[in-house]
Amino acid sequence: MALPRVHVNEKSPLSENNSPKDSGIDKRQSAQIIAPTRKSLHQNIFGKLRPLPFQYHWTVWYDKHSDSTDYDNRLYVLHEDVADIATFYRVYNNYPWEKIRLRDTVHIFRKGVRPVWEDQENLKGGCWRFRVPKSKAQEFFHEIAILCMANEFQAVLEQEHDHVLGVSTSVRFNTHLISVWNKLGSNECSIKALERTILDRLSPELRPTGTGSNAYFYKRHDENEGYQEAVEGAASKD
C-alpha cells in the first residue's frame, strides 16, 4: 500500500517561453493553467520543522482491542520518543499500516501521557472523532498527525489553557475512526476552535462533508460506557 508522502509542488505548465499567447490557448484555459498552486500542508510544515525538534516529544502506541479495561495487557509502545520530523517519518514510513487488525488502534500521544481515559491528563477531556472512508483514512491520519505534532492545533488552544494531547486511528469495518484528543472536554470555546482548525487545515479533498454521527462529532470521555469503571480500576491500583 502506498503511504502518503510530503508532496512537492509542480511548476506551472507554462514557462516564460511558452506563454498562452504563443500556444494559442484561449484566455479561460490560460487562467486555469497559470493560476498559482497553493503550497501543500505537508510542504509548509515540513519546511518549518526540518531544522528544529518538535516542541513536545511524542510516543507511538499500539492498542490491541479487547473487552477488558486492563490496559497493561492491551497497550504497548511502538516508539517511545519521537522528537523531530525525521524520526516521525522513520517510524511512519516503515510501519505496516495495512496490517492493523479490525478494531485495533494506533495512538500518537505526548510523551508521558497514556492514551486512556483514566490518565490524569485525560480525565476531564474528550475528543473529536471522524469517520473516514478507508480510501482516505491513511492520508487523513497522516495530515492530522503532522498538524498535531507541529503544534498547529495547540496554537489555537493556548488562550483557553487547553492542550491537544494526541491523535488516534482505529480500524473499523468500512471506515477508520480518527480522533483528536484534548484536555478540557467541557470548554466549548476550545472545542469549537479545534474543530475550525482541523477543518481549515485539512486538504480540501479530505474534509468531511457534513456533521453528525455519519461524519464527525465531539464526545467527552466521561460520556463513554465504561469510563467510570476504568477510572475506579486505575484508582484501586494506586
Short descriptors:
globular, disordered N terminus, alpha+beta, RNA 7-methylguanosine cap binding, RNA Cap, Translation Initiation Factor Eif4e, 7 strands, 238 residues, seven-stranded antiparallel β-sheet, initiation factor, TIF_eIF_4E
- By DSSP, the count of extended strands is 7
How much beta, percentage-wise?
Answer: 15-25%
Helix content: 25-40%
Please name the fourth-level CATH homologous superfamily.
RNA Cap, Translation Initiation Factor Eif4e
- How is the biggest beta sheet arranged? 7 strands, antiparallel
* Spatial strand sequence of the major β-sheet: 2-1-3-5-6-4-7
Q: Mean pLDDT, nearest integer? A: 83
Give the overall silhouette: globular
CATH architecture: 2-Layer Sandwich
**H-E string:** HHHEEHEEHHEEHEH
Query: Roughly how many Å apart are the termini?
Result: 43 Å
Assembly state of the chains shown: single chain
The low-confidence parts are 1-38
CATH class: Alpha Beta
**Sheet/helix structural class:** alpha+beta
How large is the radius of gyration?
Answer: 20 Å
Give the count of structural domains.
1
